[in-house]
Design goal:
Length: 133
């Protein structure tokens, strides 16, 4: 009887120890806020996106993400972060109403000086903040 109990406990322990290594986990999108206090929500959402970008980079560096997933997720999050920062700088109630001194590349999401014709990161042609191809 003791041997059977020991076998069951060992089997259960092995199951709980090995499941994280064999279980597939999907990518979970972060929860964003949206309410009447827009500036605070934009800042909160920006911080979430920047933290997620760092997490994606860490996962890639440690081998948890392959190159294709890393590039796809990084591009998506950088574009979302750039959009949020644009909202914070222009046109959003409570913002300063000034145009930003930089534009953002529509291809990779990196900041591009307003007078630049090409993105320094990906080489895409940029004119007035819009991606030309």
């Amino acid at each position: 009887m003791f041997t059977l109990l020991l076998f069951i406990v060992t089997l259960a322990s092995g199951y709980y120890l090995l499941m994280p290594f064999v279980q597939q986990r999907g990518f979970v999108m972060p929860v964003f806020r949206s309410s009447a206090n827009g500036d605070q929500d934009l800042e909160y959402n920006k911080q979430i996106l920047l933290r997620e970008i760092k997490d994606i980079e860490f996962d890639y560096d440690t081998g948890k993400l392959d190159t294709a997933d890393y590039q796809e997720l990084t591009q998506e999050y950088k574009l979302r972060a750039a959009s949020l920062m644009r909202q914070m700088d222009t046109g959003h109630p409570g913002g300063n109403g000034k145009s930003p001194a930089v534009n953002f590349c529509a291809q990779c999401g990196d900041a591009v000086p307003a007078e630049a014709n090409f993105c320094a990161s990906c080489g895409s042609r940029v004119r007035g903040g819009d991606h030309e191809g």
